[in-house]
C-alpha cells in the first residue's frame, strides 16, 4: 500500500518531465532553425569574405534583413536560456553535479554569444554614421568588417563552451535510461566537433578554411537527433519513474 502511494506521488513527475521534454524540443527546434537561417540566408548572402567594401554595400542595401538577422540571434539566445533550464530539470536525476557543470558551461557560452550578437549590431554603426560624421567610407567599411570578423571569433569561442556542455549532456543522456543512449553518443560527437572547430580556427586558420563547415556536420546531426528525440519521443516515463523510486528507496 505504501509502495502504491509512493508510485502515485512519482507518476505526475514523469508526466511533468514529458512536458519539459516537449518544451525543450520545441525550443531546440527554434534555435536550430534560426541558427541555420541566420548563417545561410542572411550572413552568408551579405558578407563577402575578404572584401570590406562589397560587404558594406550589401549590408546597407539590405539593412532590414541584417537587422532581422540580429533580432533572430536575440530570440535564439532567449530560447537557449529556457532550453538550458529544461536540460537541467531533465538530466539532474542522473547526476546533479555533472548537470550543474553543464549549466555553468551553458551560461558562459550564452554570455559570450550575446557579445557576438552585439558585434553584428555594431557592424551597422560605422556604416550608418559615416555620411553624417564625415568618416572616411573606407575606414567605416573596415570597422564594420572587423566587427563581423570579431563576431565570428566570439561565436567560435561560445561554441567551445557549448561543445563542452554537449559532451557532458551527451554522457548524461547515455546514462539516463530514459533517453536513447545512441542520441547521447551523437551529442558527445557534436560537442567534440565544436571543440575541434574552435581550436583549429585558433591554431591553424588555413586548415580551418579547409575543414569548415564540414567539421560541423556531425554537430548538426547530433543536435537534430536530440531535438527530434525530445520533440517526438520525449522521456521514457516508466524508466524516469523507476529512477525516482530507486532514488527515494535509497
From TrEMBL:
* Transmembrane spans: 20-38, 70-91, 98-118, 154-173, 185-204, 210-232
What does the UniProt keyword field contain?
Membrane, Transmembrane, Transmembrane helix
The record, for InterPro entries, names: DUF4386
Q: What does UniProt give as the signal peptide span?
A: none
Respond yes or no to whether keyword Transmembrane helix is given for this record.
Answer: yes
What's the name of the protein? Answer: DUF4386 domain-containing protein
Which organism's genome codes for this protein? Massilia aquatica
Amino acid at each position: 500500500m505504501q509502495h502504491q502511494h509512493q508510485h502515485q506521488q512519482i507518476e505526475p513527475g514523469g508526466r511533468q518531465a514529458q512536458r519539459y521534454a516537449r518544451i525543450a524540443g520545441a525550443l531546440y527546434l527554434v534555435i536550430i532553425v534560426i541558427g541555420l537561417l541566420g548563417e545561410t540566408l542572411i550572413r552568408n548572402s551579405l558578407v563577402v569574405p575578404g572584401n570590406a567594401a562589397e560587404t558594406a554595400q550589401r549590408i546597407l542595401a539590405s539593412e532590414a534583413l541584417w537587422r532581422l538577422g540580429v533580432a533572430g540571434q536575440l530570440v535564439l539566445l532567449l530560447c537557449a536560456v529556457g532550453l538550458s533550464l529544461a536540460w537541467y530539470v531533465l538530466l539532474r536525476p542522473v547526476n546533479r553535479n555533472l548537470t550543474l557543470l553543464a549549466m555553468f558551461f551553458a551560461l558562459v557560452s550564452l554570455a559570450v554569444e550575446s557579445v557576438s550578437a552585439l558585434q553584428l549590431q555594431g557592424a551597422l554603426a560605422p556604416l550608418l554614421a559615416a555620411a553624417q560624421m564625415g568618416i572616411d567610407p573606407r575606414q567605416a567599411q573596415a570597422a564594420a568588417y572587423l566587427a563581423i570578423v570579431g563576431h565570428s571569433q566570439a561565436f567560435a569561442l561560445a561554441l567551445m563552451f557549448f561543445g563542452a556542455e554537449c559532451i557532458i549532456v551527451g554522457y548524461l543522456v547515455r546514462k539516463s535510461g530514459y533517453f536513447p543512449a545512441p542520441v547521447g553518443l551523437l551529442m558527445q560527437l557534436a560537442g567534440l566537433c565544436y571543440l575541434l572547430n574552435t581550436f583549429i580556427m585558433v591554431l591553424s586558420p588555413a586548415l580551418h578554411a579547409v575543414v569548415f563547415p564540414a567539421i560541423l556536420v556531425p554537430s548538426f546531426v547530433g543536435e537534430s537527433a536530440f531535438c527530434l528525440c525530445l520533440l517526438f519521443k520525449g522521456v521514457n516515463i516508466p524508466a524516469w519513474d523507476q529512477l525516482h523510486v530507486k532514488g527515494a528507496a535509497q
